[in-house]
Amino acid sequence: MDIRDLIGKKFIVFDGGFGTMLQKYGIKTGVQSIEMNTIEPQTVQRIHKEYLEAGSDVITCNTFGCDRFHTTDKGLDMASIVEGAIRNAREAIGGREDKYCFYDIGPSGKLLEPLGDLSFDDAYEVFAEQVRLAAGKVDGFIAETMTDLYELKAAILAVKENSDLPLIASVSFSDNGLTLTGASPEQMVTTLEALGVDMIGINCSLGPRELMPIVKRITAVATKPLLVQPNAGLPRFDGENTFYDIDADEYALYIGEMIEAGISGFGGCCGTTPDHIRKSIEESKKHEFKFEPKPYRTIVTGTSTMVELGGRVVRCGERLNPTGKPKMKAAILEGRLYDIVDEGVKQIEKGADVLDVNVGIPNIDEEGVMVSLVKQLQEVIDAPLQIDSTDPKALEHACRVYNGIPLINSVNGKQEVMDNVFPIAAKYGGVLIGLCIDEDGIPPTAEERFKIAEHIVEEAAKYGIRKERLVIDSLVLTASAQQKEVMETVKCVKYVTDRLGISTCLGLSNVSFGLPNRPLINRTFIVMAMLAGLKLPILNPFDRELMSAIDAFEVLNAKDENATDYIERHANDVTAVATSASASKPAEGDAPKTEESSGDPLYDAIVKGQKHKAVDEASKLDKTPLEIVSDSLIPALDKVGNDYDKGKIFLPQLMVSAETAKLVFDEIRKNIKTDDSSAKGPIVIATVEADVHDIGKNIVKVVLQSYGFEVIDLGKDVKAAVICDAVREHKPIAVGLSALMTTTVVYMRKTIEALKEQGLDVPTFVGGAVLTQDVADQIGATYYAKDAMESVRICEQIYDEVTR
Amino acid sequence: MSDDIKLALKYLGLKESPNEEQLLMVESAMEEIKKVSRPLFLHRFYPLHFDGERYYVDVDLNLDYKSTYGLFSRKQSDSLCILVSTLGSAVDKRISRYKDTEPSRMVLLDACANSLIETVTDEYQAKLGLKDETFRYAPGYGDVPLTMQRQIFDLMPEISKIGIELDPCNMMHPFKSMTGLIGFKA
Predict the structure, then answer these.
(1) Interface subset of A 117-156, CB within 8 angstroms of B
(2) Which domain holds residue A769?
(3) ipTM, two decimals
């Protein structure tokens, strides 16, 4: 019998701790548990048999952590260990058909990008090679003790793409109620259910007492059955050994309590023994099995956030889209994805809950760009993303590397599109935007558009996608061109909300196209649409009035309880209007500093780090760019640099001034478009190979740029060969190298040697925490820069010599 | 002024006492770091032996260095505590978030995180109530090589359970993590 037929219908009983038992039977120190599969198969079989005799339905193969890092990389033969482990479990079971053997997948022990250096694809492969060895020989897979949902996603995909066996995914939580990467129990439930596991689980790290609140939070929201395998208490160390102190009787009482809280399976983790399992089974007989799936909620997740659709209005930022935005388009074409990431960060700061990501420009590698951008965005943005593309390949690949459960934009009523996109949503578990358009175009009436929505819902069901995982877009038409159809859109929003009972979204800005004062039209329209039920407006978060209209609507619609959010955001509105900007609190990003006025407003603005004011002042001045630089910019930076040297101000203040000066510099350079000679340099900078610390290098970059140098930043962990290539390509006047660690100074020397060997005659300046003048001399650097200001002095000196 | 703010100001290189604006900048950065940090700690005790020449423990951890000799002999320690702490990966992420948009803010947050990991580890250490404890010594300083990290990680596999990983250069991830050796009297 397939165990899937039993999950959710009766208690599924797993086994308990394996390491504890191996210790009991005298595993030698220095031997990994998995090695015992081939060294002492009889011991492994004996432990399996003890658990089977105690009453376990499922025994897990002794394969926890049997991946390439723990086998091949240590000179062990992975295939024979996996084979031995499965054979041991099979022999222990004998021919019994009511007992099951699961392959046990543990975490890789490495952190995935961007926190560590294991890529998602490599993580997938680490798991997939195990699955391929075990598929067909076991009754199912359990991925357990997972502390990062992203890594678990790789494991789940590895199992599902390489076998069709049952899969349980089990997560470990810390005592703060979160996983190590910051996911909550609710986020874990959403992710695992959306990825289509057969049973969700929690295990290890905590004892049953500490896991109880987490169990309750999970069963309060889960639509799938829960397996719980606690440790026998919290680990204690006596200086030599780890031990656990909850005995079998006490353990069983907790399992009983968890059954009352709604769990559907139990077992044990570290420190538990066959006795713990036996007593727990006895206890379970005193309780009734009841699995009650909770109502499905439409939730999307970011790296550590969740956004639920259907309740409050969710704001989706529309600005990561090149359509009609020449700057964004240029950034994509020139590969400056970090500019787009910046725009994303800003939208979040302005109140976007979700970001739409679209890179659709003709003749580019949309799939490649989309995947890179999604990876870069999730490095810095916690919020969920809405992956927006008409290219199914781009959608699929982006959904794959996405760290969470995304919104997918979009599917529509065209059969071909549905056939392409539904499988992606089914596999990766996204929430899909469904557009009310089909082969015949956008129907004029609300009733006809609603019919398309219904058709999309029906087709989705064929792929196992429930209607709550769809968000219908009734499509906004332009009021200036199709005035009468604007209301049809609003009507359709109401139909979908009332008749289908699912969420709706609208891309707002279209409505006002071609009319003056577009924001006024937009915010009037959004209120009408929200009244009809709109839950996911795709909008410009920088439109403060529009965002405020949503805030107000949420109060009036009784969704913002006690107007808490409204008051927080708008309590100071009146004051802000009544007083001038300069009298109110300093604007965001402007470092507050108290200094006397010098009589030169640009100089003052740079010293004070007032970015907007400085740019304004610079554009007002009737001076040549060179005069602006020599009269205001350099003196201001010198003052700040001096204050910093004396310890009057601290580094961030120096940097805010530098950032401000750079903005001014960019501004005045814009006015002399053809004359590129105003930039000095270039200077190539990099953090050397094996060193991933780039804060110091970034500081140097900003300060150098503020002094008008063109800086080519090669990033961190840069190999000598790459630096040599860059020198050949850009012909810089100097190369700046940064290293934080004593261990990476070696690579700094290698880089300098490589430059010399290849005959690249360029001065080098080096800096970083462990560098001193002596070290700089030893490794053959031309200059030692103790800080960013020193780098400027060095580069100025080199520049003077070069241009003399 | 709280200890973490004081230390952050020191890390930021301020030599004079901070003015109100500087204090506000650091306080807001510290608040942001505290919001995302999830400090986790681990420790183990080992009997520390002295054979008349050098200090050693019964496990695979080389303590034969001038700095550690000085550390333990000054207080005649007979026990060793290895303390490991981290602020969690979200802190790294938060700091890098400002890399391109606002490097000055990044530096502020970085200093605050460095200060916070020190101060929370101090608090954790204080709770252990170690008798005659020495200064907390970190591998990588003085003549104690960074490769000692590898020995510590091999010795304490439970470190991975608080989410710290060692890369091939013996750097810890998350960055805002610490290992420390403390001598004390049992």
Answers:
(1) 117, 147
(2) 679-803
(3) 0.73
